[in-house]
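Researcher: Let's run the pair from yesterday's discussion. Sequence first, then tokens, for each.
Model: Starting with the first of the pair.
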Amino acid sequence: MKKWYESLFENYGKKYDNESFTKGTVGECDFIEKEIDYDKSLKIIDIGCGTGRHSIELTKRGYNVLGIDLSESQLERAREKVKEQNLEIEFQKHDARKLPFKDDFDLAIMICEGAFSLMETDEMNFEILRNAAKSLKDSGKLIFTTLNGLFPLYHSVEEFCKSTTDEGNATYRSNTFDLMTFREYNITMVEDDSGNKKELKCNERFYVPSEITWLLKTLGFKRIDIYGAKLGAFSRNIELTTEDFEMLVIADFTSEI
């Protein structure tokens, strides 16, 4: 039986690109470029690349990017977009818990819950972080966003989703947050690219900063910085608060800035 995150992304590439949370790509890539000092010799892996929006934008700017995703449907859409724009980008289908790479990349990105936090157990989520770390060179850097566990302690996730959802996008209802597991459960209603409507029982893991820091330190990262993640406006100047739905995590194997 397929998991909810596998069913959700089937035949959903065009609809996905119209979701409100995909609209920050340019600003997010501005931040990624700055973090790697605009060094176009670096190799980048985009984990959970979806329809390739960050891979495509970074390639346009001259970077060498490999996009990987579990969803063949999302990858097909990514390849369509690349062909339409006359670009050359390699996309591969992989499970982020079992990546075949070791010491291959200078930067790994997982933006907008790209794989991480969607898994059904904490152990599976940790495997994604472990495989991302394994893919990196000793001097590598990991940049990702994940759901901020401080947010649902003070706010309704359901109300937040309603306020940020445009007409025609996926909708969420019956949201419940489990304080023992920090998992948020909901029923997601989505219409795919063919007009078929799906109702999926979903759950995602929210993390608090101390958890993320500990997990990354066990993987050998020396410097871990966590900030509030603003759509299309990532910055080291945004202190994480209970108002942030997502957090931005930047991890280095070296202690230098």
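Model: Moving on to the second of the pair.
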Amino acid sequence: MRAVVQRVAEARVSPGGEVGAGLCVLLGVARGDSARDAAQLAQKIARLRIFENDEGRFDRSLLDTGGAALVVSQFTLFADTAKGNRPSFSAAAPQEEAEPVYDAFCAALRALGVEVATGVFGARMQVDLVNDGPVTLVLE
């Protein structure tokens, strides 16, 4: 799995939902990823200390702040451009394999008490966000 995590003041996806302060998570599922992988990544993201404390240091997590997460499926995170100019997405899981793992990731965040909004899996979507910081991390 691969995730691009952005700290946001607000984010929305259309079609889909929106959140206030928290995280926007662009989530790619690779071939062979499992619900267990999804749960582990959800734990990591929910506990990332990328929110500032009163002294301005990164010391608080999404769980500490009570923030929400907008989770958007993004198979293009597995683009391979090593050969030519047209990206290959062969490392990305096919939809029938990826969607249950994506759902497991969202369920794992919710089980931790995080409010989760999502896009529509497999749809063409428009994502709008206000990156706070900016703070952007790539996790695998």
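Researcher: Give me one sentence on the second I can quote.
Model: The chain has three helices and eight strands.
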